[in-house]
Amino acid sequence: xxxxxxxxxxxxxxxADLAARARALDAADELxxxxxxxxxxxxxxxxxxxxxxDGNSLGALPAHVPARLADVVARQWGELRIRSWxxxxxxxxxxxxxxxxxxxxxxxxxxxxxxxxxxxxxFKAVVAATRLADGGRDEILVDATTFPTDGYIAESAxxxxxHRIVPLDPAGIPGAVTDRTALALVNHVDYRSGxxxxxxxxTAALHEAGALAxxxxxxxxxxxxxxxxxxxxxxxxxxxxxYLNGGPGAPAYLYVAERHQDRxxxxxxxxxxxxxxxxxxxxxxxADGAARGRVGTPDILSMLALEAALDVxxxxxxxDVRAKSLALTDFFLECVRVYAPxxxxxxxxxxxxxxxxxxxxxxxxxxxxxxxELIRRGVVGDxxxxxxxxxxxxxxxxxxxxxxxAARTLADVLADIPPxxx
Length: 422
Ligand SMILES: *Cc1c(COP(=O)(O)O)cnc(C)c1O
What we know:
This protein has 422 residues and is an alpha/beta fold. The chain folds into two domains: 6-37 and 316-416, Aspartate Aminotransferase, domain 1; 66-313, Type I PLP-dependent aspartate aminotransferase-like (Major domain) (Aspartate Aminotransferase, domain 2), CATH 3.40.640.10. It is 38% helix and 12% strand. The protein has 13 helices and 13 strands. The protein has helices spanning 2-27, 65-80, 84-87, 93-101, 118-132, 148-161, 173-176, 199-208, 258-261, 300-309, 318-339, 367-376, 400-416, and strands at residues 51-52, 112-114, 139-143, 164-168, 181-187, 212-216, 235-238, 253-256, 346-347, 359-363, 379-380, 382-384, 388-392. Strands 2-8-7-6-5-3-4 form a seven-stranded mixed sheet, with helices on both faces. Strands 9-10-13-12 form a four-stranded antiparallel sheet. The longest helix is centred in the first third of the chain and has 26 residues, at 2-27. The two termini are 21 Å apart. It binds pyridoxal-5'-phosphate. The site of pyridoxal-5'-phosphate has 13 residues, from helix 5 and helix 6. Pyridoxal-5'-phosphate binds at residues 117-119, 147, 149-150, 187, 191, 216, 218-219, 239, 252. Its EC number is 3.7.1.3. Homodimer. Belongs to the kynureninase family. Its cofactor is pyridoxal 5'-phosphate.
């Protein structure tokens, strides 16, 4: 019986050490001050706020958003009514908010329009990319492990346009792209494993073969630098309710590189994308610029909640966010190794920084029971069936003490839930 005693002593010594390290890291954290911008609960005298590690699925609420949205509803809608399309800036919101997102993804102004869901924007981007591509190219490369909606929509777009889908590991794109490739649709960060793809390298390889690069930024925008312009990305889409904290169902966005805008031919040319929407003419004439990516009347309430939410990024450098994100995920992986040894959980997310997004995915045979119990104990991550525990790290409101507590709670839960088959 002497061995377990030794192991316990070693573990508790490390635990004190990790807790102290967490305090020191939080004290030195320049981004820590942004946490108070969010409504996370647990203020003085309130109940335990818990640890929120699901901002990669639904970002937390910025505390000032309810009052701003209340004004949009009561004054802009309630009092000004139709006048708000002009006087409250409703009509121009899709491009104005696109320009707010632009610096976060490394885009100059005038290339991003906000509206519709990511799924709808994937459809616009894929079909438009086939129309931009040189004739005779009949293949669309798609990330084999893509978030399902991208795969479903690309498949339908391929059937509509007479293309063939080639599923593959994005790392294999440089070796697979040929003169038959029209485009590749790739998730910048894999939603399940947290793997970060080589956007510059893959984009360059596609261009070398004359193909277009369409990137889905759902799990990277707001978490790490993307560099759309710098790397010559052709088209991109992303959602705003994950790391951008826009709220449930917040509108997505579409990036069309300026050099493609004149030839961008939307498969959903709604009246909002017309050069003269209020001309109400029977013939379609596409608007110039990012507005060409619009479809119909924008969902103003969600859109203006998003616009308010983006205020949390004022004065924040995405490079600093990335540095903290890597420090958080490194620290989490280390805490899990110390607290939960014994092979019950295995990291699926790559160790290499260049291949890691802002989440950690752990494979665990008892994942469903473990995640349910973690949430009951105040540590909120999520489950991707059958066996992935997913933890998202949002540097503006997650700190190192949260990370240490999450790993310690995970170890406690594992100790209380017997291994499958035991
Ligand atoms: C979250 C996510 C989506 C979501 O699509 P919606 O149309 O907004 O529901 C799409 N693609 C990826 C890669 C995602 O991570």
